[in-house]
Design brief:
The protein is of the alpha+beta class. The chain has two domains: 75 residues, Orthogonal Bundle (Arc Repressor Mutant, subunit A); 169 residues, Beta-Lactamase, CATH 3.30.450.40. It has a six-stranded antiparallel sheet with strand order 5-4-3-8-7-6, sandwiched between helices. Strands 1-2 form a two-stranded antiparallel sheet. A hairpin with a 6-residue loop joins β6 and β7. The chain is globular and about 55 Å long. 32% of the residues are buried.
């Protein structure tokens, strides 16, 4: 029974991951056939998984399109996950940073091999950067998060895994990545332009706890045609904002409890 239970749990988690995908979010949900095709699973198995997830409120089904999407309970759980004090410390700082830079701002954390956005603010430009879940080695916030780890650990993470980014200045292999991370440790920030995505420039800075450990990364990004020339100027803004988050996080502030 245990192996079957394990398989069912994995299948359910795979379904949730698919419903988190850009395709599902853009289309407002996916049908059972499409989900089964994406996962390469039997439609009847996926239907059973969807039924269980729906019973627990983790997914919802649109009564008109019959498409499945992430349920409100997922969002409720997400608000209670992680370090809520970090998010409450960062929220006003992100608002201020958005006002000062006019570009997309976000707070990211390490999630396995990815940089996961846990808080974001976006401008009203017709053209703007989008945040989400990214390979951690390919972005400015990701490299900041990796800079908090030892080189030996990073080598183990990417043993046998292709590590490359696009563009003439892109990363080519783990040793090249480690050289870029050494620059991040030296400079205290990262700037990535036209590597993760053509036409995108981003700045990242670390957010540390009272022990000095990197617990998150603060980023600002925008289209290269608009933001690349301002990236170095934005570094000071991002570093100052990261320091404000640290101060608010380490020192309990008004409206926040020291222990949650």
């Amino acid at each position: 029974m245990a192996p079957e239970r394990d398989t069912s749990i994995r299948r359910g988690l795979d379904v949730l991951a698919v419903l988190e995908s850009p395709e599902a979010l853009t289309r407002g949900g996916l049908g059972v056939t499409r989900i089964a095709n994406i996962l390469g699973k039997d439609k009847s198995q996926i239907s059973r998984s969807l039924k269980v997830l729906a019973e627990y409120g983790l997914i919802d089904r649109d009564p008109k399109t019959l498409a499945y999407r992430l349920g409100w309970r997922i969002y409720s759980m997400a608000r209670r996950s992680g370090d809520h004090r970090l998010l409450s410390s960062a929220e006003p700082v992100l608002d201020e940073l958005l006002a000062r830079t006019g570009e997309s701002v976000y707070l990211s954390v390490m999630s396995n091999y990815e940089a996961l956005t846990v808080l974001e603010r976006v401008p009203r430009h017709a053209v703007q950067a989008t945040s989400g879940i990214w390979p951690v080695f390919s972005t400015s916030v990701g490299r900041v998060l990796l800079a908090g780890r030892q080189d030996a650990e990073i080598r183990r993470m990417y043993e046998g895994v292709p590590v490359q980014t696009r563009g003439p200045h892109g990363i080519d292999g783990v040793e090249d990545l480690l050289a870029r991370i050494a620059d991040v440790r030296r400079d205290g920030h990262a700037v990535v332009s036209d590597e993760f995505e053509d036409g995108l420039t981003a700045v990242g800075a670390p957010v540390r706890d009272h022990r000095g450990d990197v617990i998150a990364a603060l980023g600002v990004s925008g289209p290269s045609f608009r933001f690349a020339a301002k990236a170095e100027e934005a570094v000071a803004e991002v570093l100052a904002a990261a320091a404000r988050i640290e101060e608010r996080f380490v020192t309990p502030h008004a409206g926040a409890e020291a222990d949650e």
